[in-house]
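pasting for ref
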Amino acid sequence: MNKIIILLLTLTIFSCQNKETKVDVKEAKSSCHKEKKFEMYEMSEMASLMEQMYAYNLQIRARIVKGDTIGKFPEFFNKIYTAKFTTPSDNDTFFKENADKYIAAQKLIYSDSKNEKDNFNKGLDACVTCHQGKCGGPIPRIKKLYIQ
């Protein structure tokens, strides 16, 4: 019995000892957390232009709804033909044809004051059609511009 008590005491003493392991804090941090470089997203000229056109159309929409005058066709819209794309290959025949349709629809808004609402919506149709073939992401946002 004494041997059992001594054995239990010995096991208890060894199991309760504080086993320290030295760890280099810098080494632990570097192995656990890989440092990621923050990269700022920079819009292409085309993406930036489309944001500007969206903002402008938001203002025009409000003017049409109120019955205010809308002014003249914004010439900066013509940059759609020269702005650089994020992916240069996206500037293909499909895009160019749809850009022509969009500009024509936009010009109608300013030249036909009796049908501003319909022409505005046709301009949005041109946006949606192009984005259905290219980059669909903005479609829900564009659809919010429609005038009912």
